[in-house]
Amino acid sequence: MTMRDAIAAFVHDGDTVAIEGFTHLIPTAAGHEIIRQGRRNLTVVRMTADIVVDQMLAGGCVAKLVSSFVGNSSAGSLGELRRRIEHALPEPLEFEEYSHYGMVCRYLAGAQRLPFYPLRSYAGSDLVSVNDGIRTVTSPYPGPDGSEERIHVVPPVNPDVTIVHAQRADRAGNTQIWGLTGVQAEAVFAARKAVVVVEEVVDDDVVRSDPNRTIIPAHAVDAVVACPRGAHPSFAQGYYDRDNAFYRAWSHISKDPERLREWMARWVRGTRDHTEYFAMLGEEHWAGLAVGEALSLPVDYGRRL
User: Fold this and answer.
1) Is the peptide bond before 217 cis (omega within 30 degrees of 0)?
2) Which residues contact 2 (CB under 8 A, 6 or more apart)?
3) Strands 94-97 and 193-201, how do they pair?
4) Quick one: average pLDDT of 92-109?
């Protein structure tokens, strides 16, 4: 599908939308299309709420954020998010916070259709006091010392739709990722629907030649969208590098509400699609993000004689 058609079909006002990609392969172009289509009252689930979340907030799309980290990826703050949480400007943001592992467990519970997922890492944490979604249960088994054990649990998350970015997929949706994989597969399996955005759609034989790179299988995917450079300003291993200058600039852009509105009007609402967005950046900009070859050695999977 085109990005426009995929977002129109699978993202609706009031939905819970998971947008995953951990530093790598962040589906920014999908977030921009959600803004262009004027979606409202979304609950956004994203472990590392970063620039794309800040932009969706500025676009008026997000009513609630579920996350385990907020920040501009080692480059500063998220101005719109800070205004929403610290000053309720232009309106408050409902924020539900977990640890990274807590979010992973929520996706695991959602993917496996479990009622909750137990974890020990919240012992002594203040998160329990600010998030009533983190509960305690009595284990049916003895603890390490043989006595009754109380253990923290987190609820499953089952998004209406999960959107992830990847390097490549075939037309059926068999999706391959290499480099930093994050929690994309778990987030897809937890969702009711899934949209996979890729740098390129490849022939079936390409995927079949290296099956272990298939992180997400076709039966879990509802739409495949080809969108080259769609993860910018994050990176796609083997395709382009992280745009560190953009990350540094964003802290200054988002800190000033007027400058942020101007940026959104030009770069998101002022573009018809991501092709126009990356064309505006210019080939000289993209040349600065080019990467060289670092080929993986071939693997002999063997076949019947």
Assistant:
1) no
2) 225, 273
3) unpaired
4) 97
Could you tell me the pTM of the whole model? 0.96
Residue 206, amino acid: V
Total length of the chain: 305
End-to-end CA distance of the chain: 39
Quick: pLDDT tens for 259-287: 999 999 999 999 999 999 999 999 999 99
Q: What is the distance between the alpha carbons of residues 128 and 227, in angstroms, rounded to a whole number?
A: 40
Rounded percentage of the chain residues whose pLDDT exceeds 90? 97
Asked if the peptide bond before residue 233 counts as cis, ω within 30 degrees of 0, the response is yes
Burial of 221 (0-12, 13-18, 19+ CB in 10 A): buried
Q: What span, in angstroms and rounded, lies between the C-alpha atoms of 66 and 44?
A: 6
Class of residue 140 by CB neighbours under 10 A (exposed 0-12, middle 13-18, buried 19+): exposed
